[in-house]
Each structure stands twice: as C-alpha cells, then as structure tokens.
Amino acid sequence: MSRNWTEIWALIEEATPGPISCSNERSNNVLEDAIIGRKKIWISYDQKDEFDGLVGTEIYLDRINNLKTMEIFALWAKDSNEDSWESGWEILGRYAMKEECKRIVAYTKHSRILDFIEYHGGDTSFRFCDVPL
Description:
This protein has 133 residues and is of the alpha+beta class. The chain has one domain (2-119): Aminopeptidase (3-Layer(aba) Sandwich). It contains four helices and four strands, in the order ααβββαβα.
C-alpha cells in the first residue's frame, strides 16, 4: 500500500473533511494507522487495473452507547455501478459483523451515497458539522 500511497491518499483526501493545510500530517497519520492495522483501506480495481473505488474504515468502541462501531471515514467511487456498490456494501457488512460491530457510521457530502444508505435502512438525518478554529 505504501508504494501507491500518493495516489491512494489523493482519493482519501478528496473523500474526507479536514484542513488541507495539515495534509502531510493527516496523510502520515492515516498511513501509519493503516500499516499497523488500526484503519483498513479497501480498494477495488477496474478491468484496466486502475482504482475503481476506495473505502477507509476504522473499528472503535462507541463509549456513549457501549457499542462496537465501524466508521467509514472515506468513501470514493469512480462510477455509480449499482452491482459494485451492493457487493462492496455486503463485504463491509460481513466484515463488520465478523468484528462484532453493532452498527456502521459514516459521513459524506454526496447525495448518491445518502440515497444508498437510506435505501438500506440507514438514518441520514444527522449532519456532520466542521467549524475550524
């Protein structure tokens, strides 16, 4: 993964909120977490062996609700192939259940993803708010 990190990081950065001024530090933090296994970077490729999609996940204990949770911190897709989305969602769900997670949480600004989550019974009524100080 570190061999293709520049290209992978560009996709993660495009898909996540955060201060651009801290890009190098953010990149190093995510890469380090991925290398030690704290975060998972799921990548799919098309038939030309080019990046087709990327999902970044981290499992943590939501101490407020005492629930093991899988957070999707980055989600990027080249196209909107419904079969690919369904397959990816199924794989993520199986992985989360194997890890004994009780829910999946994510944040996104893309209405297509919100529609997909709602279709699968997810609650999209909450908003992520980012106020730089």
